[in-house]
């Protein structure tokens, strides 16, 4: 008969593993900026969808205005870059800072083929880009 596991120990080890996973995800999306004036300090999460006619990319950018964004295609890579600034009036003591701020950049490898920028919309905190297939 296999040894019985203590339920409290099992639950504790599961909780510690979940906290460790959450910390790794947090570090993935929010890390200190490397040296340099134009270096990105965080990477926004994305979803990518492909249909027969287009590739649609959704970039989560709550709090980022259209005037704070730069979108370009460079050598088969879509680059979304910009900056999220702290809200106005944040000159007091910061008690918690979980939402990443500062310069961001996300580079997305595109599937093989030729694309032309189609729809570009900033809605409900997400940048939605549709790249139409041209070939």
What features would you describe in this structure?
InterPro entries: A-crystallin/Hsp20_dom, HSP20-like_chaperone, Small_HSP. With 135 residues, the protein is of the alpha+beta class. The protein has one domain (7-133): Immunoglobulin-like (Sandwich). It has 1 helix and 7 strands. The chain has one helix at residues 7-29; strands spanning 46-50, 54-60, 69-74, 77-84, 102-109, 115-123, 126-133. A 4-stranded antiparallel beta sheet has the order 1-2-7-6, with no helix packed on it. A 3-stranded antiparallel beta sheet has the order 3-4-5, with no helix packed on it. Strand 6 (115-123) and strand 7 (126-133) form a beta hairpin. The radius of gyration is 20 Å and the shape is flat. 11% of the residues are buried. The model has no long low-confidence stretch (mean pLDDT 83).
